[in-house]
Every structure is written in structure tokens, then in C-alpha cells.
Write a structure and sequence with these properties.
The chain is α+β, with helices and mostly antiparallel strands and 134 residues long. 51% of the residues lie in helices and 16% in strands.
Length: 134
Amino acid sequence: MSGLVLKLGPKERVLINGAVIENGDRRSRLAIMTPNAHILRLRDAIHPDEVTTPVRRVCYSVQLVLSGDSSPEDARLPTLRRIEELSRILTDQDSRAQLALATDAIIAGQYYPCLKALRVLLPREERLLAVGRS
């Protein structure tokens, strides 16, 4: 079996080609056989009102590709530029490793692994911003 396999928890929601699908009361697995389907786990989604920081802005632009609201071709270069900007700010080894994973994923056209790598940076960014406010 090839394709994307989604493992969903009870009542978990996922957006597939514009349709919100909610899992039942048990854990389940879905095999997505259609190549290039637009898929976004709603637990990973960032609401437009929450796009208030540099990492969240990059995550959101990747999310728009996953949801089908932006084309990969239009998002690729701006996303790579934003990741490069983040690499100037987040200079620790772990952050650089996540940014490298995100860059490699974008170059390969793999937007979900890019989002996954970028989401690791959200708690770090939050801590840095909290320190800056105090």
C-alpha cells in the first residue's frame, strides 16, 4: 500500500480537499491514495488571528499550501526566504536543525514535513518572546 496514512484519534478532524472530516469515537487509520491531495490536520492548523509572530507566519504560509488555498509554486520562494530570515534569529543548533529540515522539505515539495519541523520552533519562539517582554 502506498500513499499517505493518517492515524486519527477519537473525534479528531482533518481537512481533505476542502472537506472537514471528523473521526468517530475510536482511533482509526485512513489511507489517502490520491497523490497531491490537500490535507491538513485541524489540530495542527493555526487560525489567521493567531498569525502574530515570525514562526507562526511561516507555519501559516505552509498551512495554506496544505489546505489548497495557496499553490506550492507561489509559496515556495517566499517560504524559503522566511525560513532564511528565521535562521538569522534562531541560531541555536537545535533550531538550525529544524530550519534545515524545513528547507529540505520545501525544496522537495513536501509541505507537511516542513510544517512539522517548523511547529517544533513554536515553543522556543514563545519562550524567547516572553523573555523579551519581561
